[in-house]
Design brief:
Elongation Factor Tu (Ef-tu), domain 3, four-stranded antiparallel beta sheet, 3 domains, alpha+beta, OB fold (Dihydrolipoamide Acetyltransferase, E2P), six-stranded antiparallel β-barrel
Length: 343
């Protein structure tokens, strides 16, 4: 091959190599920029776990458990009976208070009758007082004409005073009877108190049957029929099946690219080929840190020579929107979450 042709071929190869090198570098830069953009525009984390709200079920009354129709991990509907406490002592108390209510009603009726009788007596004395005043007014002018004696007038005046006193006494009797009745406006205090006691006793009877407050799963059931349940002390727990969500821990430098309402793709290790849809409900506002915490009123600052600054991870709550009956969610399951943005 002539030297000139050899030199031209060498130059072509060099130019082609340079072009290829530049193309590779440019492609790498573009790919890197695209990957970085995807990395921040669609934040992703595998530090995520499925969660649901749990509620401890505790009775409002105390007593031995006489019925336990559920088993551990059973799914129950809202209103289903979880367990029943022996209702007999509470039913006896209700029967007693209902009888007392009947007696109170009779007492109120008796006080009503007493008030009516007192008012009738007051009316009679008022009539007698009016007649006594009329009689006094009629005989006083006859004293100057000597048709009546001074003693007659004195007796008439005394009769007026006596009848006025009787009227005042009758008014006091009416007020006393009204006070014993316990009526205040349209409400009778005696009757209202008795009715309130009966209502409270009925509640206690109803409280003996502890029912599911929502659709969910029974968990941590470690009791049996015959165990004594104490008022306000948790007997079992329920997992709320109405709302499931994922707590995804994202690095703090991802947070500017995450906002409430954004959609998210959720993959679970239990169902790796199935995608769940979710939406961002909120981003955590605080983390607990031991360094800087207060101990005995003084700040606790740990000495360190670590110059590497690690990004904190903040919890992002992602509500699962599309449930799948064939793929039930379990609290604590590992998830991978990718934020997709607004759609």
């Amino acid at each position: 091959m002539p030297p000139a042709a050899s030199e031209r071929g060498e130059r072509v190869r060099r130019v082609a190599g340079a072009v290829v090198s530049v193309a590779i570098i440019a492609g790498a830069v573009v790919a890197g920029l695209y990957a970085a953009r995807q990395y921040y525009v669609y934040p992703r984390t595998d530090d995520a776990y499925v969660r649901a709200n749990t509620v401890g079920i505790a009775p409002h009354v105390s007593g031995p458990i006489v019925d336990l129709p559920v088993v551990d991990n059973q799914r129950v509907a809202a209103g289903a009976l979880l367990f029943e406490i022996d209702p007999r002592p509470y039913q006896h108390a209700l029967d007693k208070l209902e009888a007392q209510l009947v007696l109170t009603q009779l007492e109120v009726q008796a006080y009503d009758d007493a008030i009516a009788a007192a008012r009738a007596e007051q009316s009679r004395h008022e009539a007698d007082a009016a007649y006594a005043r009329q009689y006094l007014k009629r005989i006083e002018p006859l004293l100057d004409k000597h048709f009546v004696t001074a003693n007659d007038v004195y007796n008439a005046r005394a009769q007026v005073e006596a009848q006025d006193a009787a009227v005042r006494n009758a008014e006091s009797e009416v007020k006393r009877a009204q006070s014993q009745l316990g009526q205040h406006g349209d409400i009778n205090a005696r009757l209202k108190a008795a009715e309130a006691e009966v209502a409270d006793a009925k509640l206690n009877v109803d409280y003996c049957s502890v029912r599911a407050p929502f659709d969910g799963y029974v968990t941590n059931l470690n009791i049996a029929v015959g165990q004594y349940a104490n008022e306000g002390r948790q007997v079992l727990s329920m997992v709320d099946d109405r709302t499931w969500y994922v707590i995804a821990n994202f690095r703090e430098n991802f947070l500017p690219h995450i906002a409430e309402g954004m959609t998210a793709d959720i993959f679970l290790l239990a169902y790796p080929n199935h995608r769940f849809r979710g939406r961002v409900q909120g981003i955590g506002w605080a983390l607990y840190q031991e360094n800087g915490a207060t101990v005995d009123g003084l700040p606790a600052v740990a000495p360190t020579l670590n110059w590497v600054r690690l990004s904190q991870r903040f919890p992002v709550r992602v509500v699962v929107d599309d449930r799948d009956a064939d793929r039930p969610l379990r609290m604590g399951a590992t998830a991978v979450v990718t934020i997709q943005g607004f759609r």
